[in-house]
Amino acid sequence: VSYFIFLGLYSVEIVVKITGYGFHKWRLSRWNLYDLAITALALITLIPRFMGHQLWTLRLEKFLLITISFRLAQRIDSLQVLFQALVIALGSILNITAVFMVVLIVYAIMLRELFGMTRLGPSTTGIANFESFGNTVLMLIRMTTGENWDNVMHDMMVEPPNCTPSRTSYLDGDCGSRPWAYIMFLSFYIVCTYIVLNMFIAVIISNFSFAYQQDSLTTLITREDLRNFKTTWAKFDPR
């Protein structure tokens, strides 16, 4: 019930804004377009709700309610600067993400070939392993966060008599390789943690500094000044 009431009030607010400002002036604000998009999606979720699809509809409704909280950035100047920094940094973040995906795929292919047949250890399971490309990618993403990556590396160092070696080729047995484990795991951790992750941080910090400086240098009248002016002017001209 609260969701329907909230959605109704939100829809009425949009209609009032369009009526008061006029459509041409209303659509010039990106936040107004953002409100319209969220409200339209929320209205669309009502269709599957009445058709009996409750579970995923409720999850989508909760997500939409969370996205509405982003409107706080329209009211708080500090959040507005953060959003500007995020928008400015978005292109660079996508480029770094593409580089990270290339590194991830290359290492996933190599680790799959080297340790795809290695016997599972204490830190590897039926899902957390290198037996398939998908599982390998998930393992690498987990290792990027620093979670238990060293224990996984030691699992890939298993040697006889704890495994069954092959007389023809290392790749045909279920034993690991100590040298390859050190090379692959340490290099991946260094590249992702000390290079790629720091690139993300550097891009965000530099763009935040740029957005903050632009906001400080170019904005002689702040949004707080405008609010105070509107409040004071309303006392003399209520209309």
Q: Can you describe what's shown?
A:
This protein is an all-alpha fold and 239 residues long. It has 2 domains: 1-75; 76-222, Helix Hairpins. Helix content is 74%, strand content 0%. The protein has helices spanning 2-21, 23-26, 30-50, 55-68, 72-75, 77-115, 133-144, 149-155, 178-218, 223-236. α1 (2-21) runs antiparallel to α3, α6 crosses α7 and α8 (149-155) packs antiparallel against α9. The model has no long low-confidence stretch (mean pLDDT 83). It comes from Modicella reniformis. It is a multi-pass membrane protein. It is found in: Cell membrane. GO terms for molecular function: high voltage-gated calcium channel activity.
Strand content is: under 5%
Helix content: over 70%
Q: Number of DSSP helices? A: 10
Would you tell me the structural class of the helices and strands? mainly alpha
Q: In the CATH hierarchy, what is the architecture of the largest domain at level 2?
A: Orthogonal Bundle
N-to-C span: 36 Å
Say what the CATH topology of the largest domain is.
Helix Hairpins
CATH class of the largest domain: Mainly Alpha
> How many β-strands, per DSSP?
0
Average pLDDT, rounded to a whole number, is: 83
The major sheet is characterized as: none
Number of domains: 2
Low-pLDDT windows of residues:
none
Order of helices and strands: HHHHHHHHHH
- If you compute it from the alpha carbons, what radius of gyration comes out, rounded to the nearest whole angstrom? 27 Å
> Looking at the structure, what is the overall shape?
elongated
